[in-house]
């Protein structure tokens, strides 16, 4: 695929734009403590992140990736988690190195930028606002914005339709299998970041980058009429 044809870029949030593990782990452990459960390791909680808050609460209560907590316990846990996390979206959460700079650079290429996350919209939007980068994005799709979330192609297809571009003209940048599957099913270019919550080398992305600055450099080069960048 030639990067010259790229007309819009979608970004995953957790593990791609921001490192949110410390705050997610603190909220999961505050929930566990309120329910009389011992704390879990942040690394353990990291392995439970990626399919949205409802699923994280099940996994954090059972400490099992496929675990389903009892319905009443889950409902209590969900409320406790959201209360704590809403108040601590950016206590420790920061952008990864190069993110703020690359968003500005990418905007200079006049490409619309969107966020497609499995986090609830009501958490994702204020998180981006607190970090001062919400205005970089023309759309923020949360895991609860549409009937299906990643790994479904729906959020990416929806973004493409709203932006009036073909999914094949979009890049999805992410850190997990959900992002790559979403991109593949939509027909978009799948780019993985090496620093995220999963091992990027195993995801089967079309391209793996060390930083979003590298992605900008590739796009800029391919926009140069004298360059011939193919991947
Ligand atoms: O909140 C999650 O579970 C993961 O969110 P992400 O899709 O931004 O990685
Ligand atoms: Mg992610």
From TrEMBL:
SUPFAM superfamilies, per the entry: HAD-like
Enzyme class, broadest EC rank: hydrolase
Pathway: Organic acid metabolism; glycolate biosynthesis; glycolate from 2-phosphoglycolate: step 1/1
EC number: 3.1.3.18
InterPro entries: HAD-like_hydrolase_sf, HAD-like_sf, HAD-SF_hydro_IA, HAD_sf, PGP-like_dom2, PGPase_prok
Keyword vocabulary terms for this entry: Carbohydrate metabolism, Hydrolase, Magnesium, Metal-binding
Gene Ontology MF terms in the entry: phosphoglycolate phosphatase activity
Record's keyword annotation contains Transcription: no
Catalytic reactions of this protein: 2-phosphoglycolate + H2O = glycolate + phosphate
Active site: 12 (nucleophile)
Pfam families named in the record: Hydrolase
Required cofactor(s): Mg(2+)
Sequence positions that bind Mg(2+): 12, 14, 175
Membership in a protein family: Belongs to the HAD-like hydrolase superfamily. CbbY/CbbZ/Gph/YieH family.
Function per UniProt: Specifically catalyzes the dephosphorylation of 2-phosphoglycolate. Is involved in the dissimilation of the intracellular 2-phosphoglycolate formed during the DNA repair of 3'-phosphoglycolate ends, a major class of DNA lesions induced by oxidative stress.
Designated name of the protein: Phosphoglycolate phosphatase
Protein's organism: Vogesella aquatica
